[in-house]
Design brief:
This protein is an alpha/beta fold and 640 residues long. The protein has 21 helices and 27 strands. Helix 17 runs parallel beside helix 18 and helix 20 packs across helix 21. It is globular. The two termini are 43 Å apart.
């Protein structure tokens, strides 16, 4: 039987395990990336491993999240990351160079390579045929040290694209349609592979938009073939030498299959507050719009920005709308400046933001109270924008630009003929904001500011455990729910003790105090617990607060791995109906937990006189980590 693209790359990088359903596999990682909101913790963990130089082919540290310097904290973090990078063989992309996924696609990504990044949208690299995974910072640190990256062997999903996009319909509409079909839980434990004649009609930036938002499916990753379009893009970036052709075998088998007819798509929007709450723009109607934000790692390419410039040229933004533009990289911004498109955007009344994540991560540009904001971003979780009652819609750049002119949600097909934007045959290359590693690393001193605190370490699992239910949540709890981001809190990603005061603050303001008062406890959740960002702080901070276990109906992949890395038990109800039998502040006992975890059995749970069973569906390696109190403890034990 033939192989899928993903299976071919997995096989070429397999260092541990068997490529079979239900098995855990370990992969050799070629490249890593970090960003500054997660990078400080990742590099603290890397330093703790005692490795001198990174073992990967290329590791890059990006500064793109915490670029607002309203105090010393972010600047100190950047200084720390820059010095660690210089000392340990890591390339350092300075603030202003651009968003990690956009820059990595332009300057470092290569078909057939493996990439993990401490950011959940790392699968953007699938747009050029990489197998790129979002991961927790510790997983990235281990990979930089030469260790394998472990995942459950994923199911294979094929999405066949037929036809060709109609004018004013874009790649954003493609992934929104896939989200509509599969939902935010539909990709868990799966790799999504795009195939069909429609693939040939999509440029690399368009493909990257689709793989980027594969993260919203909960997918392990997403990938496109590496074909002539891929080769042209890499040659235009001066990197044609890294191109290889990649495609699935004709007789490759898939676990699931979907079809999207590109020619039948219309402009779509994801309504508040989930990326799969998708409707046609015409179906939603002409709702009044207060803000339009164009950019993020999803839609900030040269291709996207040129379409926006063409729509805005010679026109004026509606007086009731604030329009912001965030180019994805210095390369994109420079090209817009040189060809006059930036002048067209500015003349129309747009506000130009720096080449960074910005509003997508809640770093500025929070909407007005109850405001309607159209965003070309990837997530519209409640409160993520920084305004708790804002109504966030995810749309294409075409819809956002058209709506910015009219003041209401607008179908761009009403604008007349769509401008044709050709992909450049050559991109100007200027990597002067990428700092190379030191030639003499021993001479580099790592700089540590006062806001950088040690990361918490778990303790060996006790024979038994008893604690209170310190929080009970519903379905689809995101890492933004667990630990909010935004301009006020992101500077404290390096300071877990301070950050702990804001854990679950928008779900239950009493949670941090309750946790501290109870000396920790157990969190009970619904389905798809921990979806969204890869931020391992969503496990590290509960660990600091004394949380011993999370008992829920199901987990998102990355967060579950982060819980294991931190030594927090990821338990699921063997019978989901038992969820209803547990209430806030109930006492829960796990009377035989160490023996049951060690022997791979179900975990006995006693709550209010009722006894039921919970599953701990982890690999043997992860069981060892849980017994040791986390992956770092486990690694130290096995290094002796």
């Amino acid at each position: 039987m033939g192989m899928t693209i993903a299976q071919k790359i997995l096989k070429a990088h397999l260092v541990d395990g068997e490529m079979a359903p239900g098995q855990e596999i370990g992969l050799r990682i070629d490249q890593t990336l970090t960003q500054d909101a997660t990078g400080t913790m990742a590099y603290l963990q890397f330093e703790a491993m005692g490795v001198g130089q990174v073992k990967t082919e290329r590791s890059v540290a990006y500064i793109d999240h915490n670029t607002l310097q309203s105090g010393f904290e972010n600047a100190d973090d950047h200084k720390y990351i820059g010095s660690v990078a210089k000392k340990h063989g890591i390339y350092y992309s300075k603030a202003g160079n651009g968003i990690c996924h956009q820059v990595h696609l332009e300057r470092f990504g290569a078909p057939g390579k493996t990439l993990i990044g401490s950011d959940s949208h790392t699968p953007t690299g699938g747009g050029i045929g990489m197998l790129a995974f979002g991961a927790g910072g510790l997983d990235v640190a281990v990979a930089m040290g030469g260790g394998a990256y472990y995942i459950p062997y994923p199911k294979m999903v094929r999405v066949t694209l037929t036809g060709k996009l109609s004018p004013w319909v874009s790649a954003k509409d493609v992934i929104l349609e896939v989200l509509r079909q599969m939902t935010v839980k539909g990709g868990v434990g799966k790799i999504v592979e795009y195939a069909g004649e429609g693939v040939k009609t999509l440029s690399v930036p368009e493909r990257a938009t689709i793989t980027n938002m594969g993260a919203e499916l909960g997918a392990t990753t997403s990938v496109f073939p590496s074909d002539e379009k891929t080769r042209q893009f890499l040659e235009a970036q001066g990197r044609g030498d890294v191109w290889v052709e990649l495609s699935s075998d004709p007789d490759a088998a898939y676990d699931e299959e979907y079809t999207v007819d590109l020619s039948a798509l219309e402009p779509l929007a994801a309504m508040p507050h989930m990326p799969d709450n998708v409707k046609k723009v015409t179906e939603i109607g002409q709702i009044k719009v207060n803000q339009c934000c164009i950019g993020s790692c999803t839609n900030s390419s040269y291709h996207d920005m040129m379409k926006v410039a063409a729509i805005l040229k010679g026109k004026t933004v509606h007086p009731d709308v604030s329009l912001t533009i965030s180019p994805g990289s210095k390369q994109v911004l420079g090209m817009l400046a040189e060809n006059g498109a930036l002048a067209d955007i500015i003349a129309a009344g747009a506000r130009i933001l720096e080449c960074a994540c910005g509003p997508c991560i809640g770093m500025g540009q929070s909407p007005e109270s109850a405001g309607v904001s159209l965003r070309t971003f990837n997530r519209n979780f409640e409160g993520r924008s920084g305004t708790q009652d804002a109504q966030i819609y995810l749309v294409s750049p075409e819809v956002a630009a058209a709506s910015a002119l009219t003041g209401v949600l607008t179908d761009p097909r009403t604008l007349g003929d769509m401008p044709e934007i050709a992909m450049p045959g050559h991109f100007p290359i200027n990597d002067n904001l990428i700092v190379l590693p030191a030639e003499n690393p021993d001479e580099v001193e790592v700089q540590r500011g006062p806001n950088i605190k040690p990361f918490p370490l778990g303790k060996e699992l006790e024979e038994s455990y008893t604690g209170k239910v310190v929080l009970k949540t519903g379905d689809n709890i995101t890492t933004d729910h667990i630990l909010p981001a935004g301009a006020k809190l992101l500077p404290y990603r390096s300071n877990v003790p301070y950050y702990s005061n804001y854990c679950f603050i928008n779900v239950d303001p009493e949670f941090p105090a309750r946790c501290k008062g109870q000396g920790g406890g157990i969190i009970v959740g619904g389905a798809n617990y921990g979806q969204g960002s890869s931020r391992e702080h969503a496990a590290l901070v509960p660990l600091y607060l004394g949380v011993k276990a999370v008992l829920c109906k199901s987990f998102a992949r990355i967060h579950k791995a982060n819980l294991v890395n931190s030594g927090i038990l990821p338990l699921t109800f063997a019978d989901p109906a038992d969820y209803d039998a547990v209430s806030l502040l109930d006492e829960i006992s796990l009377p035989n937990v160490r023996e049951e975890i060690a022997n791979g059995r179900q975990v006995t749970v006693v709550c209010g006189g009722k006894t039921f069973m919970a599953d701990c569906d982890v690999s043997d390696r992860q069981r060892g980590a849980l017994l040791a109190g986390g992956t770092l403890n486990y690694a130290k034990q096995h290094a002796k």
